[in-house]
Each structure stands twice: as C-alpha cells, then as structure tokens.
Here is the input.
Amino acid sequence: MIRKLAATLIVGLFATVAPLTAQVGIGLVGGYVGANISEDPVTTGLTWSSKTGFAAGVSLNLLSSGNIGFGLEGLYVQKGANASAAGFSGSEKVNYIEIPVLLRYNLTSGKGPNFFLTAGGSYSTLMSCTQVVAGQADVDCKTASDIESSDYGVVFGAGVTSGKLTLSGRYDMGMKNINSDHSVGQHVVKNRAIMALLSIHM
Here is the structure.
C-alpha cells in the first residue's frame, strides 16, 4: 500500500511538472561540506566544531518555462563533527546517501549568468559511522547502534548558473534526533552542514 501510494505521488508530481518543462538536465555534482552537529543539552566541557568533508553524486533538473524549477539529487555526503575536551580530541565521521528534493526559483534568465534561490527537503540513509578518539581504538557506531539509521531535514540556499556549470551554496539542517537512545535525559543530536557544490550539466 505504501509503495503504491509513493509511486502514485511521484507519477503525479512528474505529470504536473512535465508539461511546463522546457529543459531536462542530468548532471554530476560535487564539492565541499562543512559539517557539524547540534547537541541539546550541551555536554559540559565538550566542544563540537566543524568537520571538513565532501559530497558527490548526480542530479536531475527539470527547468520550467517560467521561473520555477524542480530538482532531484542522489549524493554521497560526509557529515559528523570534530570534538574536543580537557585531555582528548576526536571526531565522529558519519557518511550518508542523501536524496535532496529541491524547488528552484530563478531570479534572472537569459544567456549570461543566471541567479536562483533553492529550498526543499532531504532524506538520508546511514552508510557508516566511526567515532575516533586520539589514543584509543576506533568505534563503529553504526554496528553499535549508537546512531539512527536514517535522517531527514530541510535544505535552502542560492546559486548561479552559467552555461553547463552551476555553483551553489546551501545549508542542510537535519530535523531528526540521530541519537538512537531516546530515553528521558538523553541528548538530542542533529546534523548540520554547509555545502558549496559545483554541478556539470550533461
């Protein structure tokens, strides 16, 4: 039943967008990820900081005849964060397959560089999770079930397209508590990421 409903919604979405479509583009996308996490309440004495990673994958863009477009991506994304406290430092390396579904509003149109705004949602499936602490053995936090197997969030940003190239910046804000322990008193942990991505359209 759920699969049939999802299929119906997807077909309906493409049926709505397709008549307006002036250009369908498939591309390659990749770039920088500055990942971090939010923790509530914050652990006393522990400081989280941004961790550098990358994202890479493919994109499908449906550009309408007007200012509105629709995009679907499949990305491999490195997230997580660095951590430090008195006497130790480490990091949490978290890798996802992420599927952003994005609406795009074109601010300009023409032969020159064209600017746009974008917003939407994303769903992620956990591929791997590793906790690294200096001087200690690495911990596979996926196998230990310390982290949720999926995540979802909202995405918004802006960019510019020129010819077959698109440069965009976006903020990827996780909405799900990825701490698998949801008992009373446990910390709520959510992914955060800033991305700078370059797309090459085929």
